[in-house]
Design goal:
This protein is of the alpha/beta class and 218 residues long. The protein contains 8 helices and 5 strands, in the order αβββαααβαβααα. The protein is globular and about 50 Å long.
């Protein structure tokens, strides 16, 4: 393993240089800096729908995590004006954001710049983060020529691993683990705030991440 470490480091450095060489907008080079130690950013987006190819981001919430603390004083909350300015009634019922609510929001390019500056090179944390990253990457690809380079940490995956380790060996192939967000939060004895609010969801994901890291260290 020790002999492999320099090779792995060299490969990672080579990959970083290749990505920086092909970076479409040099203003974003900071995303490839070495991340601050023991810092993460929890992230959530609200959208006009669930299609990552055609729907738009209308709200972004993010909060920094430092060590075992959720830094609610270091948060980002943005309303985003969608390109097509059409939010379905079904979407409004979910996130309670109407077209008039986001009409004066930031345009998506300005929102991405604010978000990237807030994240920096910190690893990303979220609940079903894959969807949020796909929505953001669709916007970033034309600008950068690539998607978010930061490490991604899935809270539901951490929770699954934690619950799986608690199961007796004979039950590990037969018992489902409830990964619904409200079930996860209740099981971890964490507060449940109104869902489908981007900042609320980001803070709750951050709390779950910190709690699961604590449980894993015990």
């Amino acid at each position: 393993m020790a002999a492999d470490f320099p090779v792995a480091t060299w490969i990672a450095a080579l990959k970083r240089e290749w990505m920086l060489y092909h970076l479409g907008d040099p203003r974003f080079r900071f995303m490839w800096d070495k991340p601050p130690p023991n810092e993460w950013v929890a992230l959530d987006c609200e959208t006009t729908g669930l299609n990552t190819k055609t729907d738009d981001i209308i709200s972004i919430g993010a909060v920094r995590i430092r060590g075992n603390r959720v830094m609610t004083s270091e948060r980002l909350e943005l309303l985003v004006r969608p390109d097509k300015m059409k939010i379905s009634a079904e979407s409004v019922r979910v996130h309670r954001l109407r077209e008039q609510d986001v009409a004066q929001g930031a345009n998506i390019d300005d929102a991405m710049m604010q978000l990237m500056r807030f994240i920096g090179s910190r690893p990303l944390v979220g609940y079903y983060l894959e969807f949020d990253v796909a929505m953001i990457n669709r916007v970033l690809f034309p600008i950068l020529g690539m998607g978010l380079p930061q490490e991604k940490i899935e809270v539901s995956g951490l929770y699954y691993d934690y619950k799986y380790r608690q199961l007796p060996s004979h039950a590990r192939d037969s018992r489902a683990i409830d990964l619904r967000f409200d079930s996860l939060m209740r099981d971890l004895n964490l507060p449940l705030w109104p869902a489908h609010d981007a900042l609320n969801d980001a803070v709750m994901a951050a709390l779950a991440f910190v709690k699961l890291r604590h449980l894993d260290a015990q």
